[in-house]
Amino acid sequence: MTTAPTPTTLPRAARRPSNLFPMLGVALAALVLYWPLMLWANSGQAARSLASGADLGCKTALACATQLRNPVIPAPGQFASGFTSLSVPPLAPTSAPYNALVTGGETLLGLALASVLGLVLATLLVRSRSFERATLPWLVASQTVPIVALAPMLAVLLGQYGVQGFLPKAIIAAYIAFFPIAIGMAQGLRSPDPLQLDLMRTYRASPAQVFGLLQVPASLPYLFTSLKVAATAALVGSIVAEISTISFSGLGKMLAENSRASDTVALWVIMIYGAALGIVLVALIGGLERLVTRWRPPA
Amino acid sequence: MTAPRSPSDTPIVSVRDLSMIFPTPGGQTVALQDANLQIMPGEFISLIGPSGCGKTTLLRLMADLIQPTGGELLVNGGTPRKARENRAYGYVFQAPALMEWRNVLNNVKLPLDVMNTPKAQRDSRAREMLKLVGLEKFERSYPWQLSGGMQQRVSIARALAFDPAMLFMDEPFGALDEITRENLNLELLRLWRETGKTVVFVTHSISEAVFLSTRVVVMTARPGKIEGIVDIGLPHPRSDDSREDPRFFEYATQIRELLKKGHS
């Protein structure tokens, strides 16, 4: 018998070099550029206000660039006070964290709905060529409809059946998100090696066993890749749905209100909350992925 | 006959005038033409020949992974389909074809999971097989952590896990280096002696075929056919010394001549 090496010599994939430093470099560059960019972006408006005789409590356009009521780019102090007024207390109906939670909830529910629909569609697409030929063009077509145009109509339609509030937004988010999930899952279900399929055949495995023991586990990495794409799409979907339908909460509703009021500081703050929400959603899926696909070598 | 178990009179595989024709663009390819072969229980048969000689085709026909276009084929006393449905053979492919999401132990358990073996027996059976191939310390490792040779040993353990009567092996060591290959050849011979299984082994290495087999089936290409069958009279158990035996070279020469005859 050959002596096998001891388990301690097993390869452990080398740790990926961290992205942290390159990312921090970009952040630093953005910070350095922020100040001159802010002054340049706001000074025109400041000059016009001064020329019209408004009393801004400052003399020159450059000095007034940090004092504008609705600046193009807020000054640091304006950012700080904007954040505070929109974030404290965090769970008040008018504050951004609460509304981010609402939007996040809609997006997650939409993703869950989209996952179920995507899995069913992917299974059917892989199982039946004629189903694929009949439906795939329509699935592609469904994604060409601009969501901004579709959302109000869907909301009205769902409203007739008493579906209101939270759920229509989730459904609109699901409408955008199901497509990448269905396509990614279909690709994943088709990914097993022909030899692995032959192997299952030599065991006389039933189609259900081939599906459950081979195709589904093989498709998991594909599922998570498409879920990450779908998550950002679903977030766009729920925010657009909030903007374009009657809404009482959500980041989209806050954006619509503050855009009507031209409150640029608030818009900036909400935008940053939206970006953070997107990052959190993708990170959540990434964490779930690492948990579920622990068998994979570290990337 | 030098097989460890006295072969009975009924062949376990019977091939009569077997043909396989694949349609190709602008005609057809004769992958196998009028093959005739009887394999007795407990034999170690190698199919050897250049690419395109139909050796893999013949093995896949026996395994009911493809269906012949002509002739007769009996496996384990019935049709290949029946043999497959009765799980009469374990198949080892050119690549290990492990499930990368299953650790080593669970990969060996895969056929037992499919066949609904009582749960209590699956672990112990799989561990027994891993011990047989010398990988009992690696049961928790994942395929990507193993070398190619270790992966192929896992796939052999997996093929043996449900105790099939036959082992079909399609160039299982083709992708490995010579040193690993010779080690695995020794291990395979030991497994064959210990389990008494009938082995059908596809290879394109003459020395591998001579070293392992009781008989070597020499095949040639275009059209794929059996050129001749060489009885290997080397005594068992064989060891690395068998490779130095003068008869080893005689058999190798005999096989080489047959391969050349088909080539001219």
List keywords for this structure.
heterodimer; A: about 300 residues; mainly alpha; MetI-like fold; 11 helices; B: alpha/beta; Rossmann fold; 2 domains; six-stranded mixed sheet; about 35% helix
Protein model, in words:
The complex is a heterodimer of chains A (299) and B (264). Chain A is mainly α. Chain A has a domain at 99-292: MetI-like (MetI-like fold, Orthogonal Bundle). Chain A is 73% helix and 0% strand. Chain A has 11 helices and no strands. Chain A has helices at residues 20-51, 61-64, 76-87, 96-127, 129-142, 147-160, 166-189, 194-202, 207-244, 251-260, 264-292. In chain A, helix 6 (147-160) crosses helix 7 (166-189) and helix 7 (166-189) runs antiparallel to helix 9 (207-244). The model of chain A is unreliable at 1-8 (pLDDT under 50). With 264 residues, chain B is α/β, with parallel strands linked by helices. Chain B has 2 domains: 1-88 and 168-264, 3-Layer(aba) Sandwich (Rossmann fold); 96-163, no CATH class. Chain B is built from 8 helices and 9 strands. A 6-stranded mixed beta sheet of chain B has the order 5-6-7-3-8-9, with helices on both faces. A 3-stranded antiparallel beta sheet of chain B has the order 2-1-4. In chain B, helix 6 (178-195) links the parallel strand 6 (166-170) and strand 7 (198-203). In chain B, helix 3 (104-114) packs across helix 4 (119-132), helix 4 (119-132) packs across helix 5 and helix 7 (206-212) packs across helix 8 (246-263). The radius of gyration of chain B is 18 Å and the shape is globular. Mean pLDDT of chain B is 92; it is low at 1-7. The A-B interface holds A 1-4, 6-7, 10-13, 193, 195-196, 198-205, 209, 213-214, 217-218, 220, 293, 295-297 and B 63, 65, 84-85, 87, 89-91, 93-95, 97, 99-103, 110-111, 113-115, 134-135, 137-138, 141-142, 144-146, 150, 162, 183-184, 186-187, 190.
